[in-house]
Amino acid sequence: MLQQTRVATVLPYYERFLRRFPTLERLAEASEEEVRAVWSGLGYYRRARNLQATARSLVHDHGGRLPADPASLRTLPGVGAYTAAALASIVHGVPAAVVDGNVIRVLSRLLGLNDPAASGPGRKKIEALAGRLLEPGRAGDWNQAVMELGANVCTPRSPRCSGCPWESSCVGAETGSPERYPVLPKARAPLGRVRAVGILRRREQMLLVKRNHPTLLDGTWEFPGLDLEPHDDPPSCLHDHLERLFGSQCRVGKELATIRHSITHHRLIVSGYLAEAEPAPRARRESRAWVSEKTLEDYPISSMTAKLMAACRRGG
Question: pTM higher than 0.85 for the full model?
């Protein structure tokens, strides 16, 4: 849950998740939709899928126990080098060095490393140094200490060098400009997208469809709609899309709300239009549902869709 999400944001989700799935067995037995619903709002839904797949693997293939060997841990869904080292060292005391963003920042400044730290030679230097510094008998404590040093002292901006135990050995501190490390790769240019969606209502319900996208919000539920090209007319394109989708006569009415939303390097502008279809689309298992406010919590929706829903309530 903490991958690319702040601790303060995660805590209520973590507590709710553990109440719902208190054991590996309970998580392994749950449906994917149930897990997604509890995860809803955290984003990066592939993490939830991998977490459940790992629980199932541990229950079925490992006797419900976490392997100690980092190589075995890396065979679990969604477990990479960082997670494997963290689990092996913290849970089992295995001398495996963790390299995360905080560790990269601390060691880049310690070395005064001018190579980009995310990959290639720079990454190898950091991994080698992390391995040499690791205290074998207390690997888990050491890894957590270095990560906490980066989170609370050697921060990205305005690091508190005077409170750092490595200040006298740190190249970054010696230069007086520790913020110049680590050297970062060029930021990827943001991708702009414009999207139009239809808000179909039936008494106290609204129509949601399940998103099928290989990387962006896959498996979440949202209002039916489409991405637009620069010169598209939103109501006209949305009308044609809804008629193809439902096989019904559709009407697209007024615009209820428009929101701006960012997901990683995507910059989205999403407009919701009041829409009608005759006959009304029927619910379809796993792909289309009429949802009320009371049943909404059973459907994993993204923060983008939740934001649009709130905007439509205010405006529509």
Answer: no
